[in-house]
Amino acid sequence: MKYLELALDTAKSLGADYADIRIQKSQTEHIYLRNMSLKDTSLNQLHGYGIRIFKKGAWGFAHSNIFSEDAVVKTVKRAYAIAEQSARIKHGSGLQLATERSYIDSYKTPYCIDPFKVPLSQKVELMMEVNRTMLNYADIKMALFTLESRKDEKLFGSTLGTRLNLETVYIEPMFMATAVTAEDSQSRTYSAGGQAVGWEYIQNLNLIEKAEKIAEEAIMKVKADSLGPEKRRTLILDPFHMALTMHESVGHPTELDRVLGWEADYAGISFATPEKLGKFHYGSKIVNFVADNLLERGLATAGYDDDGVPNQKWYIVKDGILNEYGTTRATAPFIDQKMSRGCNRATNYYDFPINRIPNLYLEPGKEELSPQQLIADTKDGIYIEGRGSFSIDQHRINFQFGGDMFWEIKNGKKIRPLKKVLYKSNNPEFWNSVDAICDKRFFQTFGVTNCGKGQPSQRGRMTHGGATARFRNIRVGGSQ
User: Fold this and answer.
1) Which helix (H) or strand (E) holds 129?
2) pLDDT at 268
3) Domains plus CATH for the chain?
4) 3-state SS class at 272
5) How much is the pLDDT for 480?
6) Which residues of the chain have pLDDT under 50?
7) Is 209 helix (H, G, I), strand (E, B) or coil?
8) Between β-strands 140-158 and 58-64, what pairing exists: parallel, antiparallel or unpaired?
9) Which residues contact residue 373 at a Cβ distance below 8 angstroms, ignoring those fewer than 6 apart?
10) Cα dihedral sign for 117, 122, 126, 132?
């Protein structure tokens, strides 16, 4: 804490308009098995601090992993010098920061068993048993299992008077079975994404039972027919599949830095520009996208963002209409918002925080409706489970998605598995085609841990969710 106070006192003495410091310790463990062979284990630890200075409408940032009074002062002075130079080439009057008050608080991911205190041998033994279960099926020729855990411990302080002590944890298991025949090979994956929980989550997953299901469906898939030529069809999408679709077609287009054109070279800009707020029909009337950084087990649920702004909940799309964006203290003033929605996050201590997707989910339907009832009410359609390939243009309008498991629906029943299915659509056609969403009993979440953004690239994390939903008249066909 003494280095935190030293950094802020030095920044004020230099004449900074605003300054903050993140002292962050990060641990990441990665375990990788292929078949019955342990291919990789790694435990990485980072400990350092990043200092931001705001001066005359411009930012300066510097970082270090040397903890001494001299190093801290030098780092502050370097950040201040960068801010001064940045101010010389700013556009117009430069940036303004949205209003924020000070906070003295702490937050900790609610978990029972620290995954970093579970012996490596115990983790590997479980992973081996899962792979062995999948390989017991003769047609399964490859089994993969990866397990990742991460813990971030962060002290944050700012010249506003904010002092925060934050600890977040997540764990992410993923395994895959590949079935092979003389004609083809197909894979089926178990992945619910990352969850902000401890090892108790893994203990309660019943992974052996899930491994049997994954292996059996991989075999179904490799022996299945392709869909055939593209035509307009009804789609029913499960929550794990929609997590990818909403991430790319709703989450990224409503990051305000992307809307403003600040982010373009890595993942494109956005069609959802500010004049559309309150007017644009992003989806049908039953489509409500909620940004919720208070979400239980959400990966963006961290108490506060890296501006020191508390986590919040709001509507990105309300009753089908574009309602708001994800914002930071630096982006919010550009749409005349006085306060930030708290979406500024950095990955590591040496990263400058950037505008990130919040936890974002499709609100469940209000009427009682199960996936089985939704299928029974569908005469001719395709049901898609899990995440697959994707492609989207640089304005986040036109896109193409695949999935992990596919079923053909005829006269209210799933009649056969399929493989190599793709669908193509655009904003707003896709979300305006939603005519039914299952109710809250069937709400599920998927945690994204590898969202790439920024130059240099940062790996962000957030959670998406929803209940199974139906989309009408979408272009669907088989791939090669």
Assistant:
1) helix 120-135
2) 86
3) 2-223 (3.30.2290.10), 226-478 (no CATH)
4) coil
5) 61
6) none
7) helix
8) unpaired
9) none
10) positive
